[in-house]
Design a protein that fits this description.
There is one protein chain. A hairpin with a 2-residue loop joins strand 4 and strand 5 (549-557). It contains 20 helices and five strands. The chain has 590 residues and is mainly α. The strands form two sheets. A three-stranded antiparallel beta sheet has the order 3-5-4. The protein has a two-stranded antiparallel sheet with strand order 1-2. It is 37% helix and 5% strand.
């Protein structure tokens, strides 16, 4: 395969490029190394392993769920899966990271020098698992390569392994990583950002929840390599789903009990104005928030990509661009009211007769993520303009507000890959999937910690029973709201088996109402006000279910452009790879 063959060439060059791959934590440059003189001491293994961290996602607008059902922006990545327009030949996979991990592991097996290299071997196992997990989510089964291949290696032309075999490989690698990685408490200050035992456990729990729910709600229909269903089910065991859920709960419990992490909740500090859920995502130095908190105060991030204002800035226009990532009507309706109930069931919901009404008595996350504060604007103008507008703001990740706007491309907050909040959500979801319920004590140990920061009432079994709620749907609601624009949404929709139902409807914006429901955008006669420019919305309006009943809303992106189908749960195998390796067959439906 071209990518694997290319990786053989690239991998041989990596030894001479390691100094370039090092992150900013260690600024002392090394000489240019060759294979003949490298891997002779532990620091060589450490330097090479540092290059693995380039696999982690960082500041990239493609990581912010653009095109999902929660997003009403009309620009950005995600439109292919969001609209069901994934084209055969438009994809490619990359084994560079896997090959680098295999190089270190092969050198470690032959190492006879002094000193301890176990941590860096464990990092290689972690990042190999991380790379295979990303491939699994995109393509399902892929070829498994665990050795350093040469240009004549017959393994270059192997068939795809099944998704179940890939999952087994991922979990085996993560077990080896967990066994050899240090705890967060034993990672020195200069090495903060390197993966810990808890980070590997958190990823394993994530993998197990993903696969268990995929097997439960998606099943085997997308399996295989295009030839037959049976060809892609090698290694399938129906007992694995329950096993994975049990292990995910146990792993999360260990992290919660022993990891030393805590939610970054500074809402008790009056200077923070109940905006912890905003400042967390642009936390840089003491000047980045009114409470004077720096990155060292953040004990919530478990696995993250490290940035620094002096040494490694984001390099992209975060503040300016995130303001265009408008949320959809669906996301705004997701957040609960302060009584802990969905707005459709809460007597506290105020409707849409004023621009700020629907934000009254609502979850602080909604306000923090959209408006960087605990209050919503009193006036809004609906004008689609050149970039599109749902009538709602977005300020998650933006650095407007305290201290003014950070200069574009210099923002340097760390990017969260897995944080404690997600561990709480994984724990809760795995429990509900396993048992169909959770105790109030389990809710208090997880979900309700998030609700405390959000300023809303606890989720309890009594609340669920008294209001006809579904505990599984409420846990999914919490996940949706908490992890808004953190790159989790498409994967969640797929593993819950609701991709088509969620992505095919139109993306809607503000309620505009009509003569029977007056809003700031239409008067009592149903005529547009000065705050609404209907001619700019080419798709017009749709009547939709809202917490206040069936009402007219502006359409930002029409359902007429969406054709998401079952095949889109996986991307097509890259055509370039199938040309090079005739043993690779296509995913079903492409």
């Amino acid at each position: 395969m071209k990518s694997i063959l290319n990786n053989i060439i690239i991998g041989s060059l990596c030894l001479g490029m390691v100094a370039c791959q090092k992150n900013f934590i260690d600024l002392e440059p090394n000489a240019q190394f060759t294979d003949a003189v490298y891997f002779k001491k532990p620091s060589d293994f450490k330097d090479f392993a540092t290059g693995f961290y380039g696999q982690l996602p960082g500041w990239n607008f493609g990581s912010m769920d653009n095109g999902s059902d929660l997003s009403a922006n009309t620009n950005g990545n995600g439109s292919d899966i969001g609209t069901g327009t994934i084209a055969v030949g438009s994809t490619n996979w990359n084994y560079n990271g896997i090959r680098s991990c295999n190089i270190l592991l092969s050198k470690a097996a032959a190492y006879t020098g002094g000193g301890e290299i176990g941590q860096y071997v464990s990092e290689a196992y972690f990042f190999r698992a991380f790379a295979y997990f990303n491939l699994l989510k995109l393509y399902g089964g892929v070829p498994i390569v665990t050795t350093v291949l040469g240009v004549e290696s017959p393994e270059l032309y192997d068939k795809r392994s099944s998704r179940y075999q890939v999952v087994s490989q991922i979990l085996a690698d993560l077990d080896l990583a967990i066994a050899g990685l240090p705890t967060e408490q034993n990672i020195g200050t200069a090495d903060k950002g390197r993966i810990s035992k808890w980070g590997a456990m958190a990823l394993k729990a994530q993998v197990e929840l993903y696969e268990a729910t995929w097997e439960k709600y998606v099943g085997k229909a997308p399996d295989g390599d295009g030839s037959s269903v049976g060809a892609g089910t090698a290694g399938y065991d129906p007992a694995n789903a329950g096993k994975y859920l049990n292990e995910a709960v146990s792993l999360c419990q260990q992290i919660m009990d022993n990891g030393g992490y805590e939610l970054w909740n500074k809402n008790s500090d009056s200077k923070m104005a109940n905006s912890s859920s905003w400042y967390l995502f642009n936390l840089e130095d003491e000047g980045s928030n009114p409470g004077g908190y720096n990155k060292q105060s953040n004990k919530e991030f478990i696995l993250y990509t490290v940035y620094d204002y002096t040494l490694r800035q984001s390099g992209i226009n975060i503040t300016w661009t995130v303001g265009q990532l408008y949320p959809s009507r669906k996301f705004v309706d997701m957040a609960v009211c302060t009584d802990g109930l969905p707005p459709a069931k809460s007597s506290l919901f105020q409707g849409y007769h004023t621009a700020a009404a629907e934000f009254q008595n609502r979850d602080l996350r909604l306000l923090n993520y959209l408006y960087a504060s605990a209050t919503a604007p009193a006036t809004v103008t609906l004008d689609f303009g050149g970039l599109g507008s749902s009538g709602y703001g977005n300020n998650k990740y933006g650095v407007y507000g305290f201290g003014g706007r950070r200069t574009d491309r210099t923002e340097s907050a760390n990017w969260p890959v897995i944080r404690l909040a997600e561990v709480y959500l994984t724990y809760a979801e795995a429990l509900v999937e396993l048992n169909g319920n959770m105790s109030d004590g389990q809710l208090d140990a997880s979900i309700n910690k998030l609700r405390d920061r959000a300023g809303v009432a606890h989720l309890t079994n009594a609340l669920v029973a008294a209001n006809g709620l579904d505990i599984k749907e409420e846990i999914r609601r919490e996940r949706t709201v908490e992890l808004y624009r953190e790159g989790k949404r498409f994967d969640d929709l797929k593993r819950w088996g609701i991709l088509e139902a969620s992505l095919n409807p139109s993306r809607l914006g503000r309620v505009v109402g009509d003569a029977s429901y007056e809003t700031p955008f239409k008067d009592a006669a149903g005529n547009p006000t000065a705050a609404y420019k209907p001619s700019t919305y080419v798709f017009g309006e749709e009547t939709a279910a809202t917490p206040a009943g069936m009402l007219k809303c502006v359409v930002v992106a029409s359902s007429r452009n969406n054709s998401v189908a079952k095949r889109h749960y996986l991307y097509p195998v890259p055509t370039s790879q199938m040309i090079l390796n005739k043993n690779l067959l296509q995913n079903p439906g492409y």
